[in-house]
Design brief:
By secondary structure, the protein is mainly alpha-helical. The protein is built from 3 helices and no strands. It has one domain. The N and C termini lie far apart (about 95 Å).
């Protein structure tokens, strides 16, 4: 049973290398002419490969969903931070009006408008 998992992991790694076009290394052509290997007739191995491929597709879909939710969360964080800045600015303005009366800038503008300057 352990050998099947090892075989599935090796085949999965080869599948990813073939899918992504990665070449690990090149070997010189052999001068030995061996008879061709028979195809694997074991249905269990083929089924494991099918399950591994399906799992890969499912994980790729999950990655897409997680990336989308991450960008949505980042956008939401930016929006909330902007709202926080606006609220803090308004609090500072109101705090300035409450401490010591009105701010000096407002008084000077009001007095300048009364004098007609």
């Amino acid at each position: 049973m352990k050998n099947i998992y090892i075989l599935a992991a090796i085949l999965y790694r080869k599948y990813l290398h073939l899918k992504n076009g990665v070449i690990d290394h090149t070997l010189p052509f052999s001068t030995y002419k061996a008879p061709p290997l028979p195809a694997a007739n074991d249905i269990y191995i083929a089924d494991v490969l099918k399950i591994a491929e399906q799992r890969c597709l499912n994980l790729e879909e999950e990655i897409k969903q997680i990336r989308n939710s991450k960008t949505d969360s980042e956008n939401r964080i930016k929006y909330v931070r902007k709202q926080k800045e606006i609220v803090e600015a308004e609090n500072d303005r109101l705090r300035a009006q409450l401490t010591g009366g009105r701010p000096e800038a407002a008084i000077s503008i009001e007095s300048a408008s009364r004098l007609g300057i």
